[in-house]
Design a protein that fits this description.
single chain, 205 residues, mainly alpha
């Protein structure tokens, strides 16, 4: 499988895959480059092993994330951790609606925790997976529609699983978008989906 050979298995949060580890990672990764987060993630997750420790050491958390330019998000993250402690006994919730109720958590983080943290199938819908689905299907969809029902329906049509995709497939799509199906210069010749991709078949014909 393409992902097993070419995936970004070295990303530290992919080696842990616990709900808390994924929640922390996705909170840090929001609009931040993965390579930058990877440099500081290890020490952060080792020091802050649960939401209680974040709440107890807020100044240390601010210091730990300073180099990521995420200072403005710290208060919202503290609120989310407090919510987890007060409402869920310190355990990151498994339910989608409960995750969305956490301050600062949107559909992407919620689905990532469900899929990568709890190992339940779901669809990770963002700019990258929408780009792949658009090219495979030949359908146009605006990036701002990533929260829409239309976006999920497109992924279902492309990948055929109404309940969602398992972690390895979601990771594969994210990495395929990173390495191959790039926004400006997709490398269709080396894409594992080229035989079933509307764009790939057009470019390579």
């Amino acid at each position: 499988m393409w992902y097993r050979l070419h995936g970004r298995h070295n990303l530290p949060w992919r080696k842990l895959e616990t709900p808390w580890a994924i929640f922390v990672a996705e909170s840090l990764l929001r609009r931040t480059n993965a390579s930058i987060v990877a440099k500081v993630y290890g020490p952060i997750i080792n020091e802050f092993r649960c939401p209680e420790e974040v709440i107890e050491k807020k100044s240390r958390w601010r210091e730990a994330i300073r180099g990521l330019g995420l200072a403005s998000r710290a208060d919202k993250f503290f609120e989310a951790c407090d919510h987890i402690v007060q409402q869920h006994h310190g355990k990151v919730p498994t339910e989608y609606k409960s995750l969305l109720a956490l301050p600062g958590v949107g559909h992407y983080i919620a689905n990532s925790v469900i899929c990568f943290g709890y190992q339940y199938p779901t669809y990770i819908i963002d700019t990258n997976t929408l780009r792949i689905a658009s090219k495979v299907s030949g359908e146009e969809i605006k990036q701002e529609q990533h929260r829409s029902k239309k976006a999920k329906e497109m992924l279902v049509r492309c990948f055929g699983e109404t309940e969602g995709l398992p972690p390895e497939i979601n990771y594969a799509l994210l990495d395929l978008a990173f390495f191959v199906c790039k926004p400006n210069k997709p490398d269709c010749a080396h894409c594992p989906l080229k035989d079933c991709c509307h764009t790939g078949s057009t470019v390579l014909s």
